[in-house]
Specification:
heterodimer; A: alpha+beta; Butyryl-Coa Dehydrogenase, subunit A, domain 1; Butyryl-CoA Dehydrogenase, subunit A, domain 2; 3 domains; four-stranded mixed sheet; four-stranded antiparallel sheet; 10 strands; B: alpha+beta; Butyryl-CoA Dehydrogenase, subunit A, domain 3; about 50% helix; globular
Chain lengths: ~400, ~400
């Protein structure tokens, strides 16, 4: 089996090298959250379709629904090779990582037949409607209403409200949605989870312009939008539990994701490489003592976070606070990335002041844009300040404020 | 060496887990802060009964090979004792004794090992005398010297910051001999009357200067040449690991002290731990603690891998050179992170206690003092990061 996998790895590596899409004449986004132009979307959609057609996506998903029916180890190899070769990511992240695993886990046979194949091929783009304009990180404060109606055209839900930070909202065919079905309920109770078509009457999207100047999110409005009732996932009122289950797919803890690369990752090694080709006071920046000290700080911190993942698997070394590593992961990692990108910009001398689109911008302005986009991670999914509250209260046992 | 791919494996055996649990319980029970403070006034700084209990539990022999009466678990396994000692501010000569053991394993002759290792495994106290008046971390920049006359060496010069020298049965002192470092194995009889107690920032510790002038030792009590260089390197690495482990314990200790206060003290009508300014500061300490512990146990894993063969003899194959670099990177990262993070945690702990933090009675200062002792011991974070830059980024052009 080991040799089979080695052969497979070589075969994958070779295919990926031969089929790398040509470099576009625009700066690619770093993740599905940053897809802001039609050109970017079409380029990445074509890449996902090509990967899927070659059999390198959804490899461990059931064949009956369009998957490959192969061991997860095969998909893991593909994912690792894609990262290794720094290939573009596949854009249908919400489908491949959240909606897909959820449908395969608790969906009906009809849902599996209807949704999985198009999700893998990227013909059907998925988006997510959890956050709301007035409720930021507090998902349980969800105020979008869903009311069940039955009439001659069948069972439907009527939706009213708004969602925000909908990535790929302009391109999505389907949305996974959290809405309140019991108007008298509070917080986690009375929520329900839906798969809905984005072309339903009464749904409109409005692009949001980001601090980078680009587009990449939409706000989605529901104005008496009418969606089929068979999109309900789980039972009415159990939406919170379904949403939490979905989030475990996001964290990768439960496995079951379709695979592929979810984002283009710029790490410390990339910044070290940038330092090698940047000049500072007449010599390579990599030779500047202060730059070296900073790089080592980042390398040490990143290594510390990787080692935390190793230690998290050893109960005897996490017994005092078993939640400490998982619950501090986002805070540690996203803040590290943000500071790292800020530092990367600072390595560019006076060129640090250039921006995307300028002919003299280092790497087309990639680092400047990455720094700005790093805030998506330190803010999205609960800002660092909320994360610090979670660590303080749930890990350290400090009182709520 | 560019973009060195770092290993991320941490291994921890059931045996180590049991040891960690036992050591944690022992230190917690035996070293409440009242007992820590009571020991300040004592001559030795530790309780002989504690030392004997640790000997009886076999902890002093953890890194001593079975052939010499130890359990042969290796230096990496000593982390599970050093960490709780640090957490509960329980001072004993455990760490200096481990440094002496590592020095002997790496450089001593068979006769020297046979003479000392069984004793050190069963309660004899060992220590090392490597630093001098300028406090430089360069262990090869030695001004103390040895002159050979026949089979006798006459020493001159002074060593400083020698831990627990007053109770040491064996002391390894570094001297220059014919232009190269050597180690003299000194006994308590040798050093009697030559020690001067130093006043150090961490009051749990006992530290001494040692005047060598005119001291005569037989050639059989010297480690010289390449063996001395190896011994110094081994002592240094052991010091990095165990200081980092003590600091990891210290961060957890000072965090516990702080959380206790934040959950008890009220201001403006609510518990001060509910204020985000303090809560977030504690979250930062926790994040650093998690990273530091991970670095420490990873470094311990790599040392265990390295010493699973024969101790002290470093191979020359490409694989063993790479393993050596991995271990050095892991150790230096652990020491750098632990040193900085412990000082930061101690500093914030004092601040977060408010007015009480400014008093002698607040335990935060005990940990901060410890942090300020450990951080510069065998190299501060800046020192290690400069060495790491060479290891991870390649040499800088002149």
């Amino acid at each position: 089996m080991t040799t089979d996998l080695d052969d497979f790895r070589q075969q994958v590596a070779s295919w990926l090298r031969d089929n790398r899409p040509p470099a576009p004449d625009f700066l690619l986004p770093e993740s599905f959250m940053e897809v802001g132009t039609d050109a970017q979307f079409r380029y990445l959609q074509a890449w996902q379709k090509k990967l899927y057609t070659a059999g390198y996506l959804g490899m461990a998903w059931p064949e009956a629904y369009g998957g490959g029916g192969r061991p997860q180890a095969c998909q893991d190899i593909v994912n690792a090779e894609m990262a290794q070769q720094k290939l573009p990511f596949v854009p249908n992240t919400i489908g491949l990582n959240w909606a897909g695993p959820l449908i395969l886990a608790i969906g009906t046979e009809a849902q599996k037949q209807r949704y999985i194949r198009g999700m893998l091929s990227c013909d059907d783009v998925w988006c997510q409607g959890f956050s709301e304009p007035d409720n930021g990180s507090d998902l349980a404060a969800c105020a979008t209403r869903a009311v069940r109606v039955s009439d001659s055209s069948g069972d439907h839900y009527i939706l009213n409200g708004a969602k925000i930070w909908t990535s790929l909202g302009s391109y999505a065919k389907y949305m996974i949605l959290l809405a309140r079905t019991d108007p008298a309920s509070k917080r986690h109770q009375g929520l329900s989870f839906f798969l809905i078509p984005m072309d339903a009457p009464g749904i409109t999207t409005q692009p949001i312009r980001k601090l980078t100047g680009e587009y990449g999110f939409t706000q989605t409005y529901f104005d008496n939008a009418r969606v089929p009732a068979d999109g309900l996932m789980g039972r009415e009122g159990e939406g919170w539990a379904v949403a939490m289950k979905t989030l475990t797919f996001e964290r990768g803890a439960a496995g079951g994701q379709a695979g592929g690369l979810a984002r283009m990752h710029l790490g410390v090694d990339d910044v070290v490489e940038l330092a090698r080709r940047s000049k500072r006071d007449g010599r390579p920046a990599i030779d500047d003592p202060q730059v070296r000290d900073q790089l080592v700080r980042f390398l040490t911190e990143a290594q510390g976070d990787r080692l935390c993942q190793s230690r998290a698997r050893i109960p005897a070394l996490t017994s005092e606070r078993p939640d400490a590593i998982p619950l501090s992961l986002k805070l540690r990692w996203t803040e590290h990335s943000r500071r790292l990108m800020q530092f990367a910009v600072s390595l560019q001398g006076a060129n640090a002041g250039r921006w995307v689109g300028d002919a003299g911008a280092v790497d087309g302005g990639l680092w400047q844009r990455s720094y700005f986009n790093a805030f998506a991670a330190t803010i999205g999914g609960g800002p660092s300040q909320i994360q610090a509250n979670i660590v303080g209260e749930r890990v350290l046992g400090l009182p709520k404020d | 060496m560019a973009n060195h791919t770092l290993t991320t494996t941490i291994r921890f055996s059931d045996e180590q887990a049991m040891l960690l649990e036992a050591a944690s319980a022992f230190c917690r029970d035996q070293s409440p802060s009242s007992a820590v403070r009571a020991r300040f006034g004592s001559e030795t700084g530790f309780d002989a009964a504690h030392w004997q209990a640790m000997v009886d539990m076999g902890w002093l022999g953890i890194a001593v090979p079975e052939a010499h009466g130890g359990s042969g678990l290796g230096l990496g396994a000593c982390v599970v004792v050093a960490e709780p000692l640090g957490r509960h501010l329980l001072h004993t000569p455990f760490v200096p004794t481990q440094l002496a053991i590592q020095g002997l394993l790496a450089g001593a002759s068979a006769a020297q090992q046979a003479g000392w290792l069984p004793r050190l495994a069963t309660g004899a106290v060992g220590t090392v005398a490597l630093f001098e008046a300028d406090g430089d971390w360069d262990l090869h920049a030695i001004t103390a010297s040895a002159q050979m006359t026949g089979a006798t060496a006459t020493l001159s010069g002074s060593k400083t910051l020698v831990p627990d020298a007053a109770v040491a049965d064996l002391l390894l002192a570094s001297v220059q001999l014919n232009g190269a470092p050597a180690l003299a194995l000194l006994t308590q009889a040798d050093i009697a009357g030559r020690l001067q107690r130093e006043t150090v920032i961490d009051e749990t510790r006992r530290s001494f200067s040692l005047r060598l002038d005119g001291l005569q030792v037989p050639a059989a009590s010297l480690i010289t040449g390449a063996a001395a260089t190896q011994a110094l390197a081994a002592i240094r690495q052991a010091a990095w690991l165990l200081a980092a482990a003590e600091a990891a314990g210290g961060i957890a200790g000072v965090l516990a002290v702080t959380l206790d206060y934040l959950n008890t003290r009220s201001a403006f009508g609510r518990k001060i731990g509910s204020y985000q300014a303090l809560k977030h500061g504690c979250a930062d300490i926790l994040c650093q603690l998690e990273r530091v512990r991970s670095h420490v146990y990873h470094a311990a894993t790599l040392l265990a891998d390295r010493t699973s063969g024969t101790s002290g003899t470093s191979g020359t194959s490409a694989a063993s050179v790479a393993a050596e670099a991995d271990a050095e990177i892991a150790l230096r990262m652990a020491k750098a992170e632990a040193g900085d993070a412990f000082v930061q945690a101690g500093d914030r702990a004092v601040q977060f206690h408010g007015g009480f933090g400014f008093t002698w009675d607040c335990d935060a200062q005990l940990h901060l003092r410890r942090a300020l002792w450990l951080q510069p011991w065998f190299g501060d974070a800046g020192h290690h990061r400069r060495a790491l830059a060479g290891l991870l980024l390649g040499a800088a052009a002149a």
